């Protein structure tokens, strides 16, 4: 399936409902657009916003960030260089292994990261405002479970404030 042209077969529905995979692909695109809108408003790229949001809970090693952001080391180096130049992150040596370089938010970067995070989550809350509370709770549990099963940490407001 190509996300821009729809399913490649006529079985895009099951019992008259969209297939889960199709719905999730389109939802992922919608979230990507939200990140793009928020980042553009802040003068950043979506990748820069994602990097800042990943650092909200504390410094992360460059090697770990390549996996989290799904980028090659050289691409990550350039990304970190650009946000470091803007004063949003800093590279720090790991306390016990000087070969390891971690990336951490500066005070300015932390403020922008939270502004980005709050803006994206507010837009998502607006999009999902019509979802019944019981369905929202169920969807939250399902998505959190999928994230956990795939080793993706959940950033939530109580943990970051």
Automatic annotation (TrEMBL):
PROSITE patterns, per the entry: HTH_MARR_2
SUPFAM superfamilies on file: Winged helix' DNA-binding domain (SSF46785)
GO biological process terms held by the UniProt record: response to stress
MF annotations from Gene Ontology: DNA-binding transcription factor activity
InterPro entries for the chain: HTH_MarR-typ, MarR/SlyA-like, WH-like_DNA-bd_sf, WH_DNA-bd_sf
Gene3D superfamilies, A to Z: Winged helix-like DNA-binding domain superfamily/Winged helix DNA-binding domain
Residue ranges occupied by any HTH marR-type domain in the UniProt entry: 17-148
Database matches in PANTHER family: HTH-TYPE TRANSCRIPTIONAL REPRESSOR YETL, TRANSCRIPTIONAL REGULATOR, MARR FAMILY
Protein name: Winged helix-turn-helix transcriptional regulator
Organism: Candidatus Frankia alpina
């Amino acid at each position: 399936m190509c996300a821009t042209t729809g399913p490649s077969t006529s079985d895009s529905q099951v019992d008259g409902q969209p297939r889960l995979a199709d719905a999730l692909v389109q939802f992922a695109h919608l979230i990507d657009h939200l990140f793009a809108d928020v980042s553009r408003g802040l003068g950043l790229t979506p990748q820069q916003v994602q990097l800042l949001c990943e650092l909200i809970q504390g410094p992360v090693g460059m090697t770990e960030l390549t996996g989290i952001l799904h980028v090659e080391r050289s691409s990550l180096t350039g990304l970190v260089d650009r946000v470091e130049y803007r004063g949003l992150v800093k590279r720090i040596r790991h306390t016990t292994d000087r070969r390891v370089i971690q990336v951490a938010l500066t005070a300015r970067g932390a403020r922008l990261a939270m502004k980005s995070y709050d803006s994206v989550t507010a837009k998502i809350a607006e999009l999902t405002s019509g979802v019944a509370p019981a369905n929202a709770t169920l969807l939250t549990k399902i998505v959190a479970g999928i994230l956990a099963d795939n080793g993706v940490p959940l950033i939530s407001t109580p943990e970051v404030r």
